[in-house]
Amino acid sequence: MKRVFLNKLLFIFCICLLSFTSKAQNAALDSLLQLEKTLPNDTNRVDALNEIARIYLDYNYPKALNYATKSYKLAESINYENGRVTALTHQSYANDYMGRYAIAQQQNFELLAIFQQYNDSDHISTCYNNIGIIHYYLNNYQESIDFTQKALDYYLYHNQKIDIATCYNNIANAYSDMGNNDTAIVFYNKALVLYEELDDIDGMSLINGNVGEVYAVQGKYDEAYTSFIKSLQLAEKINDKWQQANMYSCLGSLLAEQNKSSEALPFLNQGLKIFKDLDARTEMIDIYEALAKSFEQQKNLTQAIYNLKQANKLRDEVFNKENATSIAEMNALYETKEKEAALLKQQEQAKYEASQKQMIIVGSTIGFLLLVVIVTISVRGNITKKKVNETLALQKQQIEAKNRDITDSIQYAKRIQSAILPNDNLIKEYLEESFILYKPKDIVAGDFYWMESIESNELAVMSDENPTLNTQHSTTVLFAAADCTGHGVPGAMVSVVCNNALNRAVREFQLTKPADILNKTRELVIETFEESEANIKDGMDIALCSLQLNPPFEGGERGMTLNYAGANNPLWIVRDDELIETKGDKQPIGKYMKKEPFTNHSIELQKGDTIYLLTDGFPDQFGGEKGKKYKYKTLKEKLLSINGLNMKEQKQALDKEFIEWKGDLEQIDDVCLIGVKV
Length: 678
Hints:
The protein is α+β, with helices and mostly antiparallel strands. The protein has helices spanning 22-38, 43-56, 61-77, 81-97, 101-117, 121-137, 141-158, 161-177, 181-197, 201-217, 221-237, 241-257, 261-278, 281-297, 301-318, 321-420, 424-430, 488-507, 514-530, 632-641, 647-662, and strands spanning 434-439, 447-461, 469-484, 540-549, 561-567, 571-575, 578-582, 601-604, 610-614, 622-623, 628-629, 671-677.
């Protein structure tokens, strides 16, 4: 279903109140981006950031969220309430569009509390409507209807037709999904009459699409197809990309339902392309499921399974239990506050009536007392003001001291964490041609890299011509890239536990095989956390390798064998112009519902092979022109393109790639990438 946008954005930057064409809006955005960099940290910069976020809401949700967050922080720091509320509004929409419903709903309730404080009935009603929309997306249909009805009552009283139509549509959506199609059609028709009266093409497109979905559910495929096409044509008329993609999805799903997979696939792929550009994850779920169904009809089971997995993955991300629980808690909290507010209002009314009687009796006395108070205040004013200023200065000093203490503690934690990381000299001693790209998100990190060397002697036959035994010295190097739960201080604390467990597995238990080391490490990590009374489920993902470094024999060179085991994280080997991937086990180091022994992989290396171990920070980073994820596929292509460079140059190229991709966006996670050439 098509989302409904807030009708009245607050306090928009005055320079951008004009109606732009698409080309003019792009020019305005470019100007704003340049202007924002030159402005001081005042209200004008907050307004500029908010307007940039508003423009990005049309086509790039991550960038919209990024600029709205910047605006919110700045507005809060300079106590600019209007700018803060506008930024919070943009944040709620960006999170909503990206499927981050728990965060969006929390921000909706925060906005509701602000507008209730100012008795702003218009925006209170808008908040009711937006809260109802989130409930609809989470299939909480009755709650959706209840909140939307509150908004509708206000709009009916004030005869705000566009808002009335919006509420009719949202209520119809809920009834439709509840299976009450007759009631849904009644509300859709009410909305359509108003949209046609207002000549609102966007609204007419929306309603035609929604009515088409009802027809599809009822099995009226011809009527549904006609409604979808009409909606698509209207959306194209106003260049509404979201609704166009929605109708492509509906048309594809409708044709797939009729076993017309060849006709369905072009519609579905076109819709998926637009939704990917918009990062509209919730809507992508339906398209992936329809694609799976279409490929199944064509007996293409590989593509059917792939698309079904994509749908399930997105569903887990968007509609997880924590989302639903969080929103239920916010709803309960809101209802409790409503009841408390009603009771408080009754109590205040009773007190007010009693006080009115008292005021008649003591009016003259109060006047006299007020005169005394005024005189007293004027005498003591300077003294009080001086004391207040002294108190504020002392509090400021205390806050600054606490901030310094916190920063000093985190810096000390960084020194501790740095001490557990292998130093560069040790790495170069055993892995001469190598690099480590390590970029913590915060001062301390949840990612870490690890290395251990094991020296051993064994008896070996020198050669066939000289069958005598000789002592052969060998060195085994263990190295790993690990990603612990979280980042910052919490992630760093988990990394210390996991690093210690790896060291114990090798040094105390004398293990050398990667799979055995991971099995023992998991056991030690769980054992450590179980000593606490809290139910801690933290742990890590890791890629661990074992490489035996042997000198050549007189008769030639012995081949080099790499052993690898992984917890979620893969091993990549670039050989000539090919990247060979070995996947780890789909389980973490830590508590897990279905624990299995880790798998050990032995790989015969060839001269010139390059080994790569990595965590998910690099491929998951948002950036580029559209604010999308970098992705594993892009990183693989990059590694293949720089394979001819030496390891130092490869690190420089990757570091530059990450910085340029991220641009002005915030780094979202720690980054750790290890490269070793043999």
